[in-house]
Amino acid sequence: MDTQVGTAMDVEAAKAHSNVALLLTLSGGFLDAFTFVGHGKVFANSMSGNIVLLAANLAASDWHQAARHVSPLVGFACGVLAARPLELMTPRWFREPAIAALVLEIVFLGTAGLKGLPEFWLIPGISLVATLQTTFFVRSGTVTYTSVMTTGNLRRSVQLFFESTIPKRDPAKLGDAAMLGAISLSFALGAMIGVLSTRHLHDTALCVPTVFLLGALLDIRRRVFT
């Protein structure tokens, strides 16, 4: 029992490491840019953006473009629903569902990048695996973050910065603010890489975030088993 508890704590600490957070956020920014640039100006992760654009297209009677924003919303909902069964059914050798979710995302994106998938399956599939990612990876060090959107990370970074300087300096909160700032920059960098890669490689560009995610998985494994 003590070994099992120790292993669970090791995995949780590895998941929360800053390297993992930065790599996951690179992937999150990339995927939003990938679907927006390469697949009809939809967002893989930003459901707020999809809902706004869906409403705008409906208001303009652009039914075809409006329909494009439905599939990522469906994928998002399926990802939310799939999280609980994944928690209950994850094989013991995966250690915990977060690792299983990460492996599933790597396999899906790698397959889509190398083999290609019809857009009907590709867009909701990306939204589903990205939703699982942000469900199971929620901490970096002592702060919560999201790896597939950046608004909350930016808000919390600015908030912690002021809390750490007014009325007196708090080094711990200042470090958390810097970490969230780095995560926000990582999202922006991932989006930039996503735009450039998608324009040149099309769907094969999905191999890039697959490498980011594989790096995160290997980092977790190294910290747990060494």
Textual characterization of the structure:
The model has no long low-confidence stretch (mean pLDDT 91). This protein is an all-alpha fold and 226 residues long. A two-stranded antiparallel sheet has the order 1-2. The protein contains 10 helices and 2 strands; from the N terminus they run αααααααββααα. Strand 1 and strand 2 (143-144) form a beta hairpin. The longest helix is centred in the last third of the chain and has 31 residues, at 171-201. The chain has helices spanning 2-15, 18-38, 47-59, 63-68, 70-89, 97-115, 119-136, 151-165, 171-201, 207-225, and strands spanning 139-140, 143-144. The chain has a single domain, classed as Growth Hormone, Chain: A. It starts with a helix and ends with a helix.
Let me know the number of strands. 2
Low-confidence stretches: none
The sequence of SSEs as H and E is HHHHHHHEEHHH
Count of all domains: 1
CATH topology: Growth Hormone, Chain: A
Q: Distance between termini?
A: 20 Å
Shape: globular
* Lateral arrangement of strands in the main beta sheet: 1-2
Q: Biggest β-sheet: count, sense, barrel?
A: 2 strands, antiparallel
